[in-house]
Amino acid sequence: MRWKISGISSIQVGGKCIPLSTLWLKDRWGRRRRFRVSTFAGFDEKKHRSVPSWSQLARDEKGRIGALIVGAHHSGWLRIGSSKKIVPYLFVSLDALPKKVRRKLLIPIEYELIEEEDTIVAREKNPSPFYIASKNSKLFHEPGCWQAKRIKDEYKVIFKTRKEALEAGYTPHRVCGG
Ligand SMILES: [Zn+2]
Questions:
Q1: What pTM does this model have?
Q2: Exposure pattern of 5-32 as b/e (b: 16+ CB <10 Å)?
Q3: Number of domains in the chain
């Protein structure tokens, strides 16, 4: 996967934006709790908005992978739970995300999970982009796709770019986007 500058210094982003409406964060007593996260259009807005926020895979300057949470469509602010405080963005560890969102976000990379100071982050195993296909099918996948992981080594075909895969007659897998 290619990482690109996020607009926030020292954080790069990649992959698709996945809507997100809850996060597991520590409350002020240090207990992990589920909080609602929503887009908040401006300081003067009185009513609570139900528009979920967006999450995207993010990597900090130390190579740790978590998620960057921003307002929907990259505009607006974030409101966490019923707190009065609103923030422009959040960089969270992977265990703050609901499992379904985490799984979707991690599809484009091959990763290993690491526990750091009781939070879970990921590290990329193979930083250069590549795609996986099988000799027995006409689909190609992102390296973290569960279908790609089921392809046995002897049937694996690796492409460095999407273009190469398309030119070889393969079609992107609908679920991971290939
Ligand atoms: Zn796939």
A1: 0.84
A2: ebeeeebbbbbebbebbbbebeeeeeee
A3: 2
